[in-house]
């Protein structure tokens, strides 16, 4: 079963920071999940929210601040994270800002052509299905993960349409039968965000393909 650190190792270290991703790797993850937005000067920044208010000592919208300003608050660029991970695990890039899509695709291509990464080490996920449609149209080699917190039937239909690799449901949507259904339709199943040890054991009993957790050492 694939062990995925949610925003790094969010249960131990502030989320989406280089320290968090380093901690996740120390804890033995197979991959990390992170979120991206664009800075005012068009850099891909790793942060979940549209503002920096919750996770830093600063304030303001990510899109209104330049990369250097964001970095001064401990927010890394996606390229910094790729350099840190250095092929030691896969990267699940959740696109929060649709405007970042093209640049994310370009960066992935750069790391494959210039840094000896491969397509299996990258995945793009999003709740914004128009983003996933765009990815599917532009590059059929990139693994796509469809995020959902609602209807699984609707997700299956859409995931087939874009030839997605995996479905990432909120874990409480799942039971053994639903996991089997998703897998029989050809999708890997990576539920989020599973932190309670009992919930983790339950999901494992459903034979999910991987789990996204703030505490990857529990997986």
Give the SSE layout.
Layout: E1 2-6, H1 18-26, E2 31-38, E3 44-46, H2 67-72, H3 78-85, E4 90-95, H4 101-114, E5 122-126, H5 129-138, E6 143-148, H6 152-161, E7 166-169, H7 176-184, E8 188-189, H8 197-205, E9 210-213
Parallel strand pairs: 1-2, 1-9, 2-4, 4-5, 5-6, 6-7, 7-8
Antiparallel strand pairs: 2-3
- What is the CATH first-level class name? Alpha Beta
Radius of gyration: 17 Å
How many independent structural domains?
1
- Class based on secondary structure composition and strand pairing: alpha/beta
Helicity level: 25-40%
Q: What is the average of the pLDDT values? A: 98
Number of helices: 8
Query: Would you count the extended β strands for me?
Result: 9
Unreliable residue runs:
none
Please, could you describe this protein's structure?
It is a single chain. The protein is α/β, with parallel strands linked by helices. The chain has a single domain, classed as Phosphatidylinositol (PI) phosphodiesterase (TIM Barrel, Alpha-Beta Barrel), CATH 3.20.20.190. It has helices at residues 18-26, 67-72, 78-85, 101-114, 129-138, 152-161, 176-184, 197-205; strands spanning 2-6, 31-38, 44-46, 90-95, 122-126, 143-148, 166-169, 188-189, 210-213. Strands 1, 2, 3, 4, 5, 6, 7, 8 and 9 form a nine-stranded mixed beta sheet that branches. β2 and β3 form a beta hairpin. The model has no long low-confidence stretch (mean pLDDT 98).
């Amino acid at each position: 079963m694939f062990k995925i650190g949610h925003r790094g190792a969010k249960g131990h270290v502030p989320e989406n920071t280089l320290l968090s991703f380093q901690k996740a790797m120390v804890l033995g993850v197979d991959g990390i999940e992170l979120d991206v937005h664009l800075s005012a000067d068009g850099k891909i920044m790793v942060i979940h929210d549209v503002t920096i208010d919750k996770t830093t000592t600063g304030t303001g919208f990510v899109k209104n601040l330049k990369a250097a300003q964001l970095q001064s608050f401990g927010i890394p660029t996606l390229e910094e994270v790729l350099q840190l991970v250095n092929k030691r695990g896969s990267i699940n890039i959740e696109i929060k800002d649709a405007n970042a899509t093209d640049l994310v695709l370009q960066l992935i291509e750069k790391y494959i052509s210039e840094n000896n990464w491969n397509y299996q080490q990258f995945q793009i996920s999003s709740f914004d299905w128009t983003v996933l449609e765009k990815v599917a149209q532009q590059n059929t080699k990139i693994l796509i993960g469809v995020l959902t917190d609602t209807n699984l039937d609707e997700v299956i239909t859409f995931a087939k349409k874009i030839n997605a690799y995996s479905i990432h449901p909120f874990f409480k949507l799942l039971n053994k039968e639903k996991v089997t259904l998703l897998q029989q339709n050809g999708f890997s199943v990576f539920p989020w965000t599973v932190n309670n040890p009992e919930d983790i054991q339950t999901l494992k009993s459903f034979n999910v393909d991987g789990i996204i957790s703030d505490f990857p050492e529990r997986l």
